[in-house]
Queue: 2 jobs
Job 1
Amino acid sequence: MSLDDVVRNVKAKQRLWEKEIEQMRSCKFATICVHGAYTKEEAIRNNQGAVIEPVYTSTSQAFQDSDYLEAALAYKIPSWAYSRIANPTIGYLELMLAMLEAYGTKFKTTACCTSSGMAAIKAAAEPFLTEEKKGKKNIVSMAQVYGGTFQLFSERFAKERGIEVRWVENPGDIDEWKSKIDGDTCFAYGEIPSNPGIALFDIAKVAELAHAQGAPLITDATLSTPALCRPLAHGSDIVVHSVTKSMTWSGRAVGGVLVSKENIVSNILSDEAKQDFAGWVKLWPLRDSRACISPDNASRALDCLRVLPSTMNVLSENSMKVAEFLESHPGVEHVNYPGLASHSQHEIAKRYMRLADTDVNRYGHLLSFEVKGGHDAARKVLDRMRFVFGATDLGRIKSVAVIPAISTHQQQGEEGRKKARIPSNLVRLCVGAEDAEDLVNELKHALG
Ligand SMILES: Cc1ncc(COP(=O)(O)O)c(C=O)c1O
């Protein structure tokens, strides 16, 4: 068989599957979470009818002859020649996440899974930081980002590579974004909502400002998950997630993903890279540096994603009850939760955070609160918790709490924490699926 015949054969099979996936895309969000791209036909055609996606732990794929091998290695046919670059189990997860992020739109989206959320953020950001115009370029990001992202931008990009990082200190203020985004901006960056400050930004307005200057908007929607917010539909070009968090609420996997829509905005990237950014990252930059997720972790994420909307609904409902209780408690100075009317960006949250396929606002399960009495009082509250685990983790089915100033945001330093508005008496609480009354009693006890 000639190389051209191989390409024709494999592409014909691929087109069949693409048609099946397109049919799945017309289903409701919850159905896509259960099935993703793993259709009945795909199961029978390629996986001996296995009902659940098999975990392909093999490092590589064998080919029937040298023509197939050549076509695969030339990227002329979809394949999984080597698991650092592609693997069927990881592929099923990527297709599911691409479908979920595109839900409710006509966009074509692609996804690239990575070994962690940080790997996804780095993989999404680095292609824009090319060497030309060095010393002139800037990144515009909200200051209240996850501590790891803050360090990546300020240490690796600013200090080591000389890229100016313009921090937006009040992300709800569109004029501040406007004053910082200009023709030398490589990309704008925000979290919705942010960890641990629970700040939000107006995705559509920031995307518009960035696009006017030829720059893309990258949004980290880890805390929302696609069940509550899908930034691509609002104008973002790329969305990144720590798959480690609410998407894999079991707490049994570390992973990340970047998802992009077709033809993203950028005055830096080539046309090929803009057309399918996530696919391009997967086959080119990540081929060389590859921080790939393991097939085991991908299958664990798939298992949790099947019930993502109902899980996020329960966790959000619990969080709302806990936030209301904390707001009424005399031992608490302030509560940050986007579902509270007192949250300064509640209106933005109402616009962007809604349970898929409903008109119901749901605000996720991360909140933070400032304890009266300063840092020592906050430590006492943490130490008095019984079933709420004290750990630098979030997104779990179990409640987990931490003091960011001495943990997740310790390395950011006093000045960095001030910029990100993280006082030393702030307790971050990620609410689990325990009974809401038990949770309230637990906090009553912890607050003394
Ligand atoms: C909002 C957000 N983005 C990214 C990350 C990094 O994810 P990972 O720990 O999977 O690298 C985290 C981690 O807590 C996070 O909270």
Job 2
Amino acid sequence: MPQTPALGSVRSLIVVLAWLSGSATAQSEAPTLPQYGGDSHLGVVTCAGSTCHGATRPFQNAAINQNEFVIWQRKDKHARAYKVLLNDQSKRIARNLGLKAAHEAKICLDCHSDNAAEDLRGKRFQLADGVGCEACHGGSKRYLGPHVSGENTRQQNLDVGMYPTETPESRALLCLSCHLGTDDKFATHRIMGAGHPRISFELDTFTELQPAHYKIDEDYRKRKQVFSGVQVWAIGQLIAVEKFLKLLASPKYRGIGPWPELAFYDCHACHHPMSDRRWRPRELTRALGPGVVRLNDANFLILSQIAGRLAPDLGERFKRAVEDLHKATIKDQASVQAAAARLGEVTANLRGILVQHSFSAADMKAMLQVMASEGASGEYNDYGAAEQAVMAMAAIKDVLEQTGSLTGGEKAELTVLMSRLYAVLEDPDKYRPEQLSTVLQTLADRTPRS
Ligand code: HEC
Ligand code: HEC
Ligand code: HEC
Ligand code: HEC
């Protein structure tokens, strides 16, 4: 039946509304983020006793190491997240934004500390502790007592307010709440323009980068479900796409004047020297042509590659929906919203398949092959995409290695190629896409096939 444009836009509006309210997605009930939970946050000192989590060395006979506090305090950047709000860079950001002081501004504290509601802060709670234990594990009011004996099962701990940090989906929601943002807290381009660094995130890589204060051993496996790095990575991509789409459609982040919110766009589409002629057509953005600001589609690109492996038809639909979203950005805001909603629906279909998939060695090798060859032909021209692709390939390589799926020769070769890829990405301001393509071509030629 032919559709009138008006009817078409009413339909789009319905899709947008259904999707924004969550009814069109197969999304499971998301756990409440620690910052917004109903339990009091008692403060890091409460966790730091020497017989609790503050031992200077790992305990031999305990289920957990008990030196979690010391690792966090000495090695984890989260312990310094509040202190950076007092440094010169933060002072400058605050001044440029007209804020009185960064360490008193809600917008900064929301991501740089455990900014729980004021009436839910215990006597020993301090914002100055930065991103402390309870910012990730949940306010401890109800679980503090019962969890000490070690007799509580994981489920019992979760029932009294602990946050499920071990499952990739809930971990992704937690980490991304600060490492991407939410409707309530987001590092806009105005904040970037005032001097905030670019934010990028990949769940598996950042899980590895955060100094581990836990050990996945036999005992851990008895208490908690364990996921492979590739599952963590893939689910991290899915959630990043879902959250990015919601932010993009949010009425709160509509940008300034006629400009959209630039934090959704590829930073280096604008921020690179004019003498550097790097534009080349890419599959997903071909319709835009040169000289156009591009959405940062790094997570979309990676998720399309995952989808292509798990369900080729759906992967194709996903790609076309991403293309349509790009095309919508050169029309108007209503088109962007409608395209984001349609892409949200395809993503919801993919979710059902992806969250329960366990990746075989053949899956991983095939994805590595696709990433390398798409990259060799220029799909990772944008720095953000290149960075996501390299982190993805590293995650896959690690799991292939851990599962004994590579020969000694393959392992040695991949190790050399991965370090060359990291070298190409070292300085975002000096990124040369053609150098990346060259290394990826070698990788594509040599990737072990199953
Ligand atoms: C949406 C969450 C979010 C908001 C809002 C936010 N930040 Fe950040 N900030 C981060 C993350 C995440 C990083 C680390 C980026 C990385 O290294 O990957 C960071 C890094 C920084 C750094 C660099 C730290 C270092 O170790 O070099 C400074 C300085 C900073 N932020 C200051 C601020 C100030 C001031 C504000 C308030 C105007 C603010 N931030 C708001 C999430 C946020
Ligand atoms: C940035 C988020 C974050 C912060 C901050 C954090 N943790 Fe964790 N913690 C995790 C993640 C992720 C895991 C691994 C997944 C899991 O076992 O639930 C974990 C695991 C643990 C475990 C489980 C060990 C096991 O064998 O089951 C303990 C205990 C723990 N953390 C204590 C602490 C304490 C104490 C602090 C503060 C000093 C702290 N954490 C700060 C994210 C965090
Ligand atoms: C409450 C906000 C918040 C949450 C939740 C959070 N982070 Fe962070 N994270 C930050 C901030 C802010 C920084 C920057 C701190 C600094 O540089 O001083 C940071 C820094 C990091 C860094 C260091 C990055 C670098 O450039 O060296 C890693 C790794 C990291 N986070 C991983 C994680 C992981 C994994 C999770 C989820 C388990 C997580 N974070 C959850 C706010 C958060
Ligand atoms: C549409 C183009 C565009 C995009 C996309 C864009 N920016 Fe900008 N950016 C600008 C403009 C214009 C300014 C203002 C430059 C000035 O004042 O000299 C600016 C300023 C900045 C500044 C301050 C520079 C200064 O001179 O103080 C930073 C930092 C920054 N942007 C970071 C980012 C990051 C990070 C991203 C990606 C998340 C990004 N930008 C995306 C156009 C863009």
